[in-house]
């Protein structure tokens, strides 16, 4: 089978449009010709040829474009190797430097590419002097029923820090965490380091009582919360702008995407779902006949069944009809958010990027950077608007907060109270409620109403 036939067979396995197929085929043909002309007998020579090709490409195109071409080529080489059609020089790079092609490409483009590649060698998991103790602590906490993924990730960062600084292996625990805390000046990192220090010192103290428990600095969390930005509460007009921006999201190659984004925005606002909860929904979680949505095993290991408004159900019904028209799977376990182009579901990271782009297109967030409203602020807005609706209906919100906490999936009412932001509209409604029901208590006897 010729090289051209192999490329065609590989492209047949991808769910891509004709324009993308043509671009991929051209890049693969050029790469194959270059490798044939420059090929050297051993594997080191093959890697050198790969580096030469990258250097040639970067003269004509931005590094980001070269990285994208390299990703296509790597996928082709992996497919060809699995099909028994030749060696894959990238496998050796993967074995030593990890499977992220971008850093490998940038390292190969450096003059001292040997040193650059050595910097990519992944550190062993729990490989520091405290690694086994941290691993044991994480396993114990999970055995006790805690999810503990976030804290485990933080402790892994500390583990890598210790491996990069072997001189800290013999100093006391407090000095190790002080050094890690000083690595970044931000209050968030300092608080994280102190949280990890407190957790690990308590775990070590169970075996060695002489080890002191490391404290968390008093007032640090308060300064952190004051420094970090407050949630943004969208107005009702801005919510309409978001829904319009989602419905008209430009996506000529993926016409189902705007319909999906409109449905995602509707669920974020009408049901107050977290981003991760939106991303994990399946077809079987939605019961249009009964108007219910099942949210399974999310934060705090909680599952909940939510009643949806008629308007939200209409939006979801329209999305499911459009989804079915594109031939998406309808089995209960299939991802609710489906990409006909990829023939797969959307991941959480891509959903967050798309919804953030919707906020930008609505003119509510700058074109670049992290400033401005976040996707999670829509959940805060759901709470704020629900409070205003209760005030307007003459309902005492205090009586409804436990129900709201259950709807949001909070473990207790305190988590819900953290969502209650005082907005001008909420102040006006609360003031009017006080005027109607509370002010008469302060009137003197005989004073006119």
TrEMBL record:
> What Gene3D superfamilies has UniProt attached to this entry?
Intergrase catalytic core
Q: Which residues form the Tyr recombinase domain?
A: 229-432
Give the molecular function GO annotations: DNA binding
Keywords assigned: DNA integration, DNA recombination, DNA-binding
Known InterPro entries for this protein? DNA_brk_join_enz, Integrase-like_cat_sf, Integrase_catalytic, Tyrosine_recombinase_XerCD
Q: Does the keyword DNA-binding apply?
A: yes
Output the GO biological process annotations, alphabetical, semicolon-separated.
DNA integration; DNA recombination
Keyword Kinase annotated = no
Report the sequence similarity comment from the record: Belongs to the 'phage' integrase family.
**Annotated protein name in UniProt:** Integrase family protein
